[in-house]
Amino acid sequence: MVATPLVVVPTPAPTPAPPPPTPAPTSLPGHVVTTTLAGHGVLAYVPGAYAALPGTRFGVVYLLHGSPGNAVSWISGGGMPAMLDGLIASGQLPPVIAVFPDDQGVVSDDSWWGDTPLGDTVETWLVYTLIPTIDSQYRTLGAARRGIAGLSAGGFGAVNIAMHHPRALQLGGELLRGVFMAPTNLFGAQSTANSPEITAPALPAAQRLPLYLGGGAQDSEFLPDTQRFIATVQGLGWAPLRTEIVPGPHGWQAWTAEARDGLTWLGQLWR
Fold first, then answer.
1. Each residue's pLDDT tens digit, 78-100
2. How many CA atoms lie within 13 A of 232 on its CB side?
3. Collapsing DSSP states into helix, strand and coil, what is residue 190?
4. What is the CATH code for 31-269?
5. Which sequence spans correspond to the domains of the chain?
6. Residues facing residue 146 across a β-bridge
7. Type and span of the H or E element at 191
8. ω into 68 cis (within 30 of 0)
9. How do residues 39-89 score in pLDDT, each as one tens digit?
């Protein structure tokens, strides 16, 4: 992340490619692979269709945990393997690979998934190390079917990274995080460039990726800021855009509901 406001220079739009084929629904359960990459724990959910369809490539969604949290949070707290199995078996979501990375920074325990003046380079690691590694180790569809989402601080990180790298991603998602201005105690002079509330209006309409934003109706601390950011992107005419406020406070009751709804919407986009 840079120290000045994000400026995106538009480039000529390429000729749209035909959509990649969508893997067929399957009732085969997936499995979780555990690894470490450059000091970061990484879990990867691999759908059952991956082994059953050896000639098929798959979309990938990166799910970022909150703070406090780690790579296991989505598994232990959100029960994501079972949720993904169910959505895939029902045909609501094409078989996808889901990656759960750890944001442990070099300096700070919680980097908010960013590159910070403290010396953390988590965003750089995710975009330039983790994503290429996943693409090299698995049969993926590349940027054509690649999304990122997160909860709490991970929701901030997902939207922030999506704003910085719109060509590397095809979906940005935020699940229950009302902060869209970077904390100055972490980002310092780089706060402006890491505040989606500021950077979203600077992104050319042609580079806007599908955006899912959600919050908990009883999340008294963060819901007002979430609603303000929703109003900002709606005012920009952002599309595709899906917003939802679900029952629950800032916790797993609402996060799992948002995850299910967000992944179902992703399934509609990726058909």
1. 999 999 999 999 999 999 999 99
2. 20
3. helix
4. 3.40.50.1820
5. 31-269
6. 60
7. none
8. yes
9. 899 999 999 999 999 999 999 999 999 988 888 999 999 999 999 999 999
Q: Which residues contact 191 (CB under 8 A, 6 or more apart)?
A: 181, 182, 183, 184
Note the pLDDT of residue 242: 95
Q: Mention every residue, 6+ apart, whose C-beta is less than 8 A from residue 250.
A: 152, 176, 216, 219, 221, 222
Count other Cβ atoms within 10 Å, centred on residue 155.
31
Alpha helices in 105-222 (DSSP H): 122-125, 131-137, 153-164, 184-187, 196-199
What phi and psi values does residue 173 have, to the nearest 5 degrees? -140, 140
Model confidence pLDDT, tens digit, residues 129-157:
999 999 999 999 999 999 999 999 899 99
> Which strand ranges, in their side-by-side order, compose the sheet holding 96-101?
31-37, 40-46, 96-101, 59-64, 146-151, 171-175, 211-216, 241-246
CA 222 from centroid of its chain's CA atoms: 19
One-letter identity of residue 88: I
User: In which residue are the tokens 């290429």 written?
Assistant: 132
Length of the chain: 271
Q: Which amino acid is at 244?
A: E
Left if phi > 0, otherwise alpha if psi is -120 to 50, otherwise beta: which for 17?
A: beta
- Model confidence at 198, pLDDT cuts 50, 70, 90, reads very high
- Contact 25/95 with Cβ under 8 angstroms? yes
Please tell me the chain's helix, strand, coil percentages from 3-state DSSP, rounded to the nearest 5. 35, 20, 45
pTM: 0.89
To 10 degrees, what angle do helices 80-89 and 252-269 make? 30
Alpha-carbon distance of 163 to 179, in angstroms, equals 15
H/E segment holding residue 114: none
